[in-house]
């Protein structure tokens, strides 16, 4: 649109082709102001509503906003566009005075020869207080405060240039007025002292200094800083005074945390060295690298009395700045202009080092793109120091201390939130505050945005914001306030990624919040040798390294907010990449499960071989332990994606490991989640397996009614799909329920029926199990001969099958039989053998079961103390894992051991 001019630096105005436009009523003008303060960034409908109606809202609030937008579009045409569920006002520096102001100030820094005129042009854009004709809005406070600070800084720079160029007389009245308006601003006072001195008004200069010193001491308890003291000393000595170069941006007033990192940086930058010490601050977007660097630079400013140089390197922009351009800016700041500036970058670097020789300067290089960009900017003199920030690792930076910033600790996050939103609000609802900080991933930028939103909405409770941050799909939209936006910060890093790294970043988000091994990137991208892709994401701090797991493979995770950001992108074949990766996990889980002891009733389906790191399965239990949380998450992901076969088969493949280590919560949760998926898909075979598996957990928890109902349902489902083995497994489970209820005759009926079905299906491992169960029931019914026959036959079958786990469980039952027949040597021998086998197999639950039996054998053989200690171990396992099935028997054995030790009369002994 030609001739458009939107003006915020004073009353709100829109001019087009030399004519001032009518902007309508207050609400419509406020909407335009809000969009202009967030220029070129999306503003959601919710944010506009909150800004315009912070307390009470009309019923037609959405229609009102849309009406205002429609009317503004008559003026702004294509500059006001729909953006998602909100709007974006797209303007250039030629069309918006705030952008033009920032552009002129930045240009003045790069061109010292024209800086005075550029700064005057920038100040001329100001017509009063920003948006002074509109009511104050809390949502505008941060943006307007930034504009006010930028104006003050520009005015200071312009007046300092006037003094340097000999225009002291013209600058003095403005400096006096500025000092009256900002009575504690030492930089203004220092410039006034210098200007008065240069104008041969020494007495007035010293009086200005004395007044400032008194004001600082009486009202703030402070002494003047080194720059102001240097100005006074120059007056006293009647020496030419020039203010040190102070280019640092202001430090945030609510800085908190980072004590360890601050201490390390201060020590590194102040240490003695043969060359200029260098420190780098790296970390993911939004973690507070620049905030920390500027804070540290201000803290150690006294150590560098000649000044502090500050340059933005544009490392996260589309075109990072060239070293030659940055050297030009630095040399201009050091007084080198015009023909004195060498043409070659190497000559400029040499002159730059020469200018800093023998002087004490701190150089802050913010947002570096690479080490090659930084190296030409390093001074050689030991009196100087360099502080660099970057989103990428700078491992090759010579001799540098590297500080990698992680997200805040919970206490630091709470402190920052309280500092912005208000201590009273946070302390009144600490749980809500902690939930907000957690939703922000403890990332300082996100917490700062959340705090600003709360600070600008006094009517909100903490719960309102916490509820808005629950939904991951809208979380980044909510984390935007004024000029602060988490999404925009992330965009700067993500858009710099090479194509394959970008694809990996986006696809990794589909794997959920758990950590993952590096090999999954090969599966997601469907190509081998992707280590460099992973390394690139780690170096860009978009992927966090979590160290190595128990089997030595490196693990990684995406920060929660980065994952939300990645999920906003879409790529072709995303579902295919996800399914490919989930099936790789399934194949590994099935392969690992087949190397574990056979778990009765588990259905381990065949999985098609895929490209996956099978060498990791050398120790299958260790692999399952390393992947347990990720596998549980993979079941959720598969179920949510509608991959019902993958979901239930993966849940079932984990059962042998869950059974070995008594992970009943994981077992029940993965089965319940997969069950929703298979039922939605009408997958009756998967439903039968999952219902049977959940019933087994009910048995372990002594929830016999729920177990029986589930097993009956599983039996019917198996019958519907014609699965004879499944029917036998379900019927055998019902037999277990009746056995545990001590209804042995009824139990025997189910076991016999189960044996018939399993023999017909040819499942010999399960046949061995049921034969042992029948033998156990015969023993409980007082039929030792029948029990011995069934049990010895079951043990022989298990041995023939090479099923050591099943053989050990039969040995436990034989031990009980031998005790009933008085064969105590055989009782002890069988029980010891069973415990040894099960401990070698790392089966927690069955080991505890066998330990109780061994304790009984030890009592029978006159070793009650050993028995007492052993059953205590078993009880601890049962209680830790929530296995209530075995606890009553263990307590009875403990009482018998105690009785044998004659401990029942001892105070403090109380079987539980």
Instruction: Please state the CA-atom Rg, rounded to the nearest Å.
Output: 37 Å
The number of helical segments is 42
Question: Span from first to last CA?
Answer: 83 Å
Estimate the mean pLDDT confidence: 89
Instruction: Note poorly predicted spans.
Output: 903-912
The description of the largest β-sheet is: 6 strands, parallel
Organism: Lentzea aerocolonigenes (Lechevalieria aerocolonigenes)
Keywords: DNA-binding, Repeat, Transcription, Transcription regulation
DNA-binding region: 1-91
GO molecular function: ADP binding; DNA binding
Task: Please explain how this structure is put together.
It is a single chain. This protein is an alpha/beta fold. Among the domains are: 1-165, Arc Repressor Mutant, subunit A (Orthogonal Bundle), CATH 1.10.10; 259-404, 3-Layer(aba) Sandwich (Rossmann fold), CATH 3.40.50; 410-489. Helices cover 60% and strands 7% of the residues. It contains 42 helices and 17 strands. A six-stranded parallel β-sheet has the order 7-9-10-11-8-12, sandwiched between helices. Helix 16 packs across helix 18. It is elongated, with a radius of gyration of 37 Å. Mean pLDDT is 89; it is low at 903-912.
